[in-house]
Write a structure and sequence with these properties.
The strands form 2 sheets. Strands 1-2-3-4 form a 4-stranded mixed sheet, with helices on both faces. The protein has one domain: HAD superfamily/HAD-like (Rossmann fold). With about 200 residues, it is an alpha/beta fold. The relative contact order is 0.14. Strand 2, helix 7 and strand 3 form a beta-alpha-beta unit. It has 8 helices and 6 strands.
Length: about 200
């Protein structure tokens, strides 16, 4: 079966929460972040600008807030089963997010994701600086990640197909194309073309 790729968002998809809102609650900037998000949704701000404005409200928070917020994150019902089902069907599951690696990394490992990409919060002296570490994961970066992972999925399919064909040839049971099937047993068995 051909390998395929399923890509999900994180906030309000893989998880039930919006991580930037949880962080903003810890910083006491929930209303300001909600206002910036509203402006971005109305097309007044592009994603990078809105991300940087929202993250700026977190300046001075202790880096330990990441653990606090991570403990509040709830995986969306059915997601573990979805991932297991995709893997059982020989597919890959990835997430790409405008959120943050600091929250997603442990979650991705726990869920068994194959790929993930997100932004990173800048930290200095144990405090959030109110900035993100470039490059920003925006729409263009998400599209690039999708293309990269799709190529990887295709390469894995091609590699596995070649290995299977080689093993079949070694066993005298090459099925695709010019099929060969061995009859009898032992070193003296002669191959003949399958009909």
């Amino acid at each position: 079966m051909a390998r395929f790729l399923v890509v999900l968002d994180v906030d309000s998809t893989l998880i039930e929460n919006e991580v930037i809102e949880l962080l903003a609650e810890e910083a006491g900037s929930g209303e300001k972040v909600a206002e910036i998000t509203f402006r971005a949704m109305n097309g007044e701000l592009d994603f990078e600008h809105s991300l940087r404005e929202r993250v700026a409200t977190l300046v001075g928070l202790p880096a330990s807030v990441i653990d606090t917020v991570r403990a509040r994150v709830t995986v969306t019902t059915g997601v573990p089963e979805l991932i297991a089902g995709v893997h059982a069907a020989d597919g890959l599951v990835a997430v790409v997010s405008g959120g943050f690696h600091e929250i997603i990394d442990p979650l991705a490992r726990e869920l068994g994701l194959d790929h993930w990409r997100a932004n990173r919060l800048a930290v200095a002296d144990g405090l959030l600086t109110g900035d993100v570490i470039p490059p920003v994961i925006d729409a263009a970066a998400k599209a690039a990640a999708l293309r990269e992972w799709a190529r990887d999925a295709g390469d894995r399919t091609d590699d596995r197909g070649r290995r299977r064909r080689q093993r079949s040839a070694d066993d005298g049971d090459l099925r695709p194309g010019g099929r060969i099937r061995r009859e009898g047993s032992g070193a003296r068995s002669r191959p003949r073309a399958a009909r």
